[in-house]
Amino acid sequence: MRIPLIVLLLLVFLTSAAAAAQEQFLLLPGTPYATEVYVSRGAAPGPAALVMGGVHGNEPAGSLAAEQVCRFAVSRGTLIVIPRVNKLALSAGIRTLPEIGDINRAYPGRADGTPAERIAAAVEALAAKYRVSLLIDLHEARTFHRLDHTSLGQMLLFAANDRSAEMALTAIDDINGLITEPVKKFAFGAHPIPGSAAYHAGAVLGLAAFTVETSGRQPLEERAAQHVAIVRSLLRQEGVDAE
């Protein structure tokens, strides 16, 4: 069956429009720490959310999940994704490089500071530029919190404000409804670690902010899927329509 020309032209237009809706650029361009940022805007105006992965190079599931989130089609609001915040450490497969420092302790950062502080300052400037109201930082821990309470594995750490607490309740219910094994179910954690992106976003900027910690004792694809499921729940609650 031949497809009418008008239909083909419409399909081409829609495909081009969808492609044009995503902007890609570098954070800290021209430096050794440059890393890709993806910004997708929906046709309908709405809130903006920032999703980060790869802050620690030995936690690849968050980066893999963020890469999947980059491919979400956004119909309402704005979705900003940094899949590989600490790109050099991810390439080396280690938590971070000594010359960079721990980005997860560097917020709010300094534009003329250490590499970790420069990256943190660039992330904060990005959040300010797009008026982000939701920040999600994807991490991993060594084991399950339910087996070892010194580990944060399978925990959702939420910022110390009412909006974050309310959203965390729903997100935990959503993800645990998809998990059958009790040890793999998520629990509420303490608030994000001081100096982290989620801590600063919640405590200082007043945003809804979260650190998601999966357990490294699961297959990579499984823990990445858990990250993506929690991101979906939080985006939906914030009013960013993305699938």
UniProtKB/TrEMBL annotation:
UniProt-listed InterPro entries: AstE_AspA_cat, N-alpha-Ac-DABA_deacetylase
Residue ranges of every copy of the Succinylglutamate desuccinylase/Aspartoacylase catalytic domain listed in the record: 45-144
One matching Pfam family: AstE_AspA_cat
Signal peptide as annotated in the record: 1-20
SUPFAM superfamilies, per the entry: Zn-dependent exopeptidases
PANTHER family membership: BLL3975 PROTEIN
UniProt protein name: Succinylglutamate desuccinylase/aspartoacylase family protein
Taxonomic lineage: Bacteria, Bacillati, Bacillota, Negativicutes, Acetonemataceae
